[in-house]
Write a structure and sequence with these properties.
Elements (H helix, E strand, L loop, with lengths): L1 H23 L2 E3 L4 E3 L5 E10 L11 H13 L17 E9 L9 E8 L10 E9 L9 E6 L10 E10 L6 H8 L8 E6 L6 H14 L10 E5 L2 E5 L8 H9 L2 E3 L6 E5 L4 E5 L3 E2 L2 E5 L2 E5 L10 E4 L10 E2 H10 L4 H14 L2 E2 L1 E4 L1
Parallel strand pairs: 13-21, 17-18
Antiparallel strand pairs: 1-12, 2-9, 3-4, 3-6, 4-5, 5-8, 6-7, 7-8, 9-11, 10-11, 13-14, 15-19, 15-20, 16-17
């Protein structure tokens, strides 16, 4: 009983919050829909050997594993004169090492998790331990040693025991986020005037969004120079921003000021996302429909100024505003289908056919 009351109280709070948010207008920080060019994750990769496996390794017939093990033993002053001496080594597997330094950056001496994946004959990496191995940036043109990886493997998914995580397995040996080098990646000085570039997220990339954000930035920094527009949209997803002279010594602070600006109800492309397996339908933006007659077994939906052509079917008018409005909204159609008790599979099929016929004015995606 108390749990039920608690649920309804929480539901009421959520509904109140949604109503207040709708009335006030959504204020979104630019940091939520934009990123700064050059401010990105750093991928690390390497190869190594996992030892200590309980007979689930690559086996003595795996040439690359045997050669790698022989080379490792030679480096540890235990040379192998004949590779056949390792033919019974079933407790070793050669693996690919992967790790990701977050956009916020890590520095020399800090640790991060890594993942190891077997790509030869190993059946499982459970109970193994990665011998110390070098890792470098995924860009193979760079041979700089970024860090070293080692540690015990942890199987996260029993279905795929050939992939494992090593908590804190990578120790960084190089600082990739030194101040000068990092600023050189995010601040462009090739034209003599320092500037940064904002990249809009895919879901908000449009000419309208680029214009709205440009106007917000120019308005925020108009006091810096009255005769110059600092922000300029160069595409639906790219905005170049010149750093004002008063901020050129502290570009990080300027970027923080820009990303902290808020935009009211940013434009986003209308999108319909459907998960056919779970039956979940997500509508984003104002998804409109052109006039069309939907004829499904025992069901008929008329959208817009389309006559009723089929007798004996359930019929429902979407809105009394049809005479005023040319297009209808998809949420009205979904609501009508729900009221008529249409199965979720049939509803998804209707949406799919609307998209194919060009009557659905939105990006349609099935996952």
């Amino acid at each position: 009983m108390f749990a039920l009351l608690r649920y309804y109280r929480l539901l009421a709070l959520v509904l109140v919050a949604l109503c207040v948010s709708r009335e006030a207008g959504a204020q979104i920080r630019l940091e939520s829909i934009c990123t700064v060019h050059g401010h990105k994750e750093v991928r690390l990769t390497g190869m190594g050997l996992v030892v200590g496996l309980n007979g689930t390794g690559d086996g003595g017939n795996a040439g690359p594993t045997i050669r790698a093990l022989a080379a490792a033993m030679k480096n540890m002053n235990v040379p192998i004169t004949d590779a056949r001496e390792l033919r019974d080594a079933k407790n070793v597997a050669i693996v690919m090492i992967e790790a990701t330094i977050p956009k916020t950056g890590l520095h020399q001496g800090q640790r991060l998790d890594c993942y190891v994946s077997s790509y030869l004959g190993s059946e499982s990496l459970r109970g193994g331990r990665l011998l110390i191995a070098p890792v470098q940036m995924a860009d193979m043109r760079s041979e700089v040693l970024v860090g070293t990886a080692s540690g015990a493997t942890v199987i996260e998914d029993p279905v795929t025991p050939t992939r494992a995580r090593i908590p804190g397995g990578v120790v960084l040996e190089t600082d990739l986020f030194r101040s000068a080098e990092y600023l050189h990646r995010i601040v462009d000085t090739s034209t003599g005037e320092p500037k940064i570039r904002l990249l809009l997220n895919e879901s908000h990339s449009s000419f309208i969004s680029a214009r709205m954000i440009t106007e917000v930035i120019n308005e925020a920094f108009e006091f810096e120079s009255f005769d110059q527009q600092h922000a300029k949209a160069v595409s639906p997803s790219v905005i170049d921003i010149s750093i004002p002279k008063t901020w050129q010594e502290t570009p990080v602070d300027f970027i923080a000021e820009v990303l902290d600006l808020k935009i009211t109800s940013p434009h986003s492309m209308s999108r319909v996302q459907v998960n056919a397996q779970t039956g979940v339908v997500i509508l984003s933006g104002d998804v409109e429909l052109s006039p069309v007659l939907i004829n499904h077994p025992n069901l008929q939906i008329s959208i817009g100024n389309v006559p009723n052509l089929v007798d004996g079917a359930q019929f429902r008018v979407l809105s009394d505003e049809q005479s005023v409005r040319t297009n209808s909204r998809l949420d009205e159609l979904v609501q009508a289908l729900n009221q008529l008790g249409v199965p979720r599979e049939a509803m998804i099929e209707v949406l799919r056919e609307l998209s194919r016929s060009g009557k659905l004015h939105a990006i349609y995606e099935e996952i």
